[in-house]
Amino acid sequence: MFYTTDEVGAGPGWVPTRMGGASASDPLDLAHGTQVWLGTSDDLEAQVSGGYWDHMKTRSPDQKTTAPGFQDALMIRLDALIGHCFG
User: Fold this and answer.
1) Beta bridge partners of 27
2) Residue 1 has pLDDT above 60, yes or no
């Protein structure tokens, strides 16, 4: 039996934690909203694979992350750091 898995990226938000600092702009009690919505919602908009989400809206990721040269360089670096796991 084969299972299908939807994959998306979600911005973690900038929340007032020790890491985010007191000036963070997103309320802590809403920080998990997009992740929960994408994982549990019956909304057709949330039932997609691919894409980058922030505050329950699709967004465009930083352009360099979609550039093949950047992706190749990143994979080479990660492979060197992790121990040649990417074949």
Assistant:
1) none
2) no
- pTM comes to 0.59
Rounded to an integer, what distance in angstroms lies between the CA atom of residue 47 and that of residue 50? 10
**Phi-psi bin for 48: left (phi > 0), alpha (psi -120 to 50), beta?**
beta
Q: Which residues partner with 1 through β-bridges?
A: none
Q: Which residue has the higher pLDDT, 72 or 3?
A: 72
Mean pLDDT over 30-34 rounds to 85
Decide the pairing of beta strands 57-59 and 52-54: antiparallel
36-65 burial code (b ≥16 CB/10 A, e <16): ebbeeeeeeebeeeeebbeebeeeeeeeee
Q: What is the pLDDT of residue 69?
A: 93
Q: Which residues pair with 58 in a beta bridge?
A: 53
